[in-house]
Amino acid sequence: MKDFKNKVAVITGAGNGFGFEIAKECASREMKLVLADIDEESLTAAVSYFKHKGAEVTGVHCDVTLDSEIGKMVDTAMNTYGSIDFLVNNAGVAISGPVWELPLQDWDWIVGANLMSQIYAMKRVIPIMLKQGSECHILNVASIAGLITTNGMPAYHTTKHASVALSESTSFDLQAINANIQMSVFCPGFVQTDLHHHENHRPERFSDKSDPYYSSPQYAAGLKRAEFVITTGMPINSIGMSVMNGIEENQFYILTHPIYNTLVGRRVKDILEGRGPDLKVLRG
After folding, report:
1. Domains of the chain from N-terminus onward
2. Which band of pLDDT confidence, cut at 50, 70 and 90, is reported for residue 276?
3. What pLDDT score was predicted for residue 202?
């Protein structure tokens, strides 16, 4: 996708982080913006920012873990601008904890935010794009955690691997019908986003903290570790440009951290040679 002017971009998790940075690049290309976020305060600030910059922008307060809320977002885009040309499924959360300790409500939350939200959006938006017939693009934000695995975050790895697989398989299906829709999946490493503040975005129905896990040292350590790796990550100011350059070049896998290439290659080699995960290798 190279022609952006007056096209419509729908971006989830757009109040801050990757969503906001990608929206800035879309605005610089004179796209019309539909910004969605569960954080009403940051969403309002983002909409105000883009209006001040002269962009055409609409905000939608949206909990992406609910299909009905995604429906509201899509309806707003169509009622306001009449088309959707660029869908960015960015919203997501990062939750740590081993599978035998992590409360089931957190599994429901992270699967809803990181995976089902992308499914809900694509199920609604792809038919619209197919009917339009014009060149369109879908970007699913995954993570390098969708290409490798580590210890301590099985829920995050599960949903990010699923996002990558969803993107790959959907790309095949779109090719099979000669659709004028390109797919990309964004797999960054640690970047200075707001991801470590995921508890601020927890929906009410997942807010029961009676499980002992939430008062455990493991839970506290997970939050502390997340804060460290995010705040010491890559500065975010180049991310929007990297992503949009990838879109312009029709890259499928958009990567930002070459440091992980060795681990990706090691994982592929382990698969081909039948070796299982080795924590000593990972840490060494």
Report:
1. 8-258 (3.40.50.720)
2. very high
3. 87
Residue 175: C-alpha distances to residues 24, 60, 170 (Å) = 30, 31, 9
Helix (H, G, I), strand (E, B) or coil at 74: helix
Beta strands in 38-145 (DSSP E): 57-61, 86-89, 136-141
Q: Residue 94 — φ and ψ, nearest 5°?
A: -125, 120
Alpha carbon separation from 140 to 15, 89, 133, 146 (Å, rounded): 17, 5, 21, 12
> Cβ(187)–Cβ(147) under 8 Å?
yes
C-alpha to C-alpha distance for 6 and 20, rounded to whole angstroms? 19
8 Å CB contact between 181 and 138: yes
Q: Which of 81, 156, 219, 260 is catalytic?
A: 156
Taking the CA atoms of residue 113, residue 119, residue 125 and residue 127 in that order, the dihedral angle to the nearest 10 degrees is -170
> What's the pTM value of the predicted model, to 2 decimals?
0.94
Using CA of residue 137, residue 55, residue 77, residue 91, what is the dihedral sign? positive
Concatenating the DSSP letter of every residue in 200-260 gives: GG--GGG----SGGGGSHHHHHHHHHHHHHHHTSB-GGGHHHHHHHHHHTT-SEEE--GGG
Torsion of CA 223, 225, 228, 233, to 10 degrees: -110
Is the Cα dihedral 125, 126, 131, 132 positive or negative?
Answer: positive
Active site includes 156? yes
Confidence of residue 111 (pLDDT cuts 50, 70, 90): very high
Q: Residue 32: pLDDT band by 50, 70, 90 thresholds?
A: very high
Digit-coded pLDDT (tens) for 249-275: 999 999 999 999 999 999 999 999 999
Positive or negative: CA dihedral 37, 39, 43, 46: negative
What's the CA gap between 250 and 159, in Å, rounded?
A: 24
CA pair distance 118, 74, nearest whole angstrom: 13
Mean pLDDT over residues 220-230, rounded?
89
